[in-house]
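Lecture 7 notes: from sequence to structure.

We start with a single chain of 377 residues. Read the sequence below before looking at the structure.
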Amino acid sequence: MWVRDSLLAAVLSLAAQVELVVLAEDIAPQLPLQVVAFAAMTGSLVLRRTRPLAAACAVAAGLALQTVLGDAPVLSGYVAVLIATYSVAQYARRRRDAVLGLVAIVAAVEVYPVVRPGVSVVDEIANVAIPVVVWVFARLARERLDRALAAERDATAARARAREEELAREAALAAERRRIAREMHDVVGHGVTLMLLHADAAQARLGRREPEATAALDVVLAAGRTALEDLHRLLRVLRETPGPDDGGPRGLADVDVLAGAAGAVVTREGEVRALPAAVEATAFRVVQESLTNAVKHAPGARTVVRLHYGEQDLTVEVDDDGPGTAAVPGAPGFGLAGMRERVALFDGRVSAGPRPGGAGWRTSAVLPVPAPQHVRT
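Now the structure, written as tokens:
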């Protein structure tokens, strides 16, 4: 930039001085001062981008000085005036500086009719209109460019925020999946342990009376112990970075304590019964996350937890009578995404939104469960 502007200033300065030499006979008495005036006008273009207001003021001062000294029709000087006018409009960071630069140049142009009476109104208007038109078009181009750059910056920032949110969402879902895997390990591990205990007891009872059954139970016990070792190995990997609530899976029996801590009321409907441990752990997490959201976004609101035991599903609903908003300003949460991830394991469904027919918020999850087995007596 410095090289280009220095080259421009040098070329115009040389051209101006050559023109002054050509006009030397006509402006002989004022030649030394004219040389200084035009040198100031053309040389100041070195600063036209780094210090546009200073360059415009220097050009205006040189123009006013050479006008006062006498008539010196040097084309290079007029080109310097137009370049300085364009530069102060294009490169001045503040509009005030751009306007001040234009005012300085117009004031210098207006020196001519003051020291040269008899200038026609048309010439005077043309002398002022040309730099004004150049300034207007250059400033419009600058402001259009500024708007385009601002829009690009906003778009880039929006893309960066979206990417950060997506990465945060992926991290939250990955953490939730690890937590689900840990809980499923506990549930499955407990089931496999019970299977091994019963198989061991059955083998002890059969003894040598049923060699084929005993051999089959040996296979079951060996496979079960291998599976249990693999589960323990997996658990060590999953718990390398334990989370804050890695206390093992909870069940629906723990919902009352959880709701009591949050000031909520729990109601149960239908045939209350023990459900598969994995289903109960998922239902507990749904209630936990829903109550956390209620306390965060609707503090002081009345909250009700409803557990409806259907024949083939369990419905979990958490209602509050707060303002009915899902979020507050700040970092986005991923609780609902985590709930969906859990419930999707059981082919269930989750919904969250304002309560129908009134204020408040409702989070609902439906988990398919096996039908209750009635034992005949």
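The chain has a mean pLDDT of 81. Keep this in mind for problem set 3.
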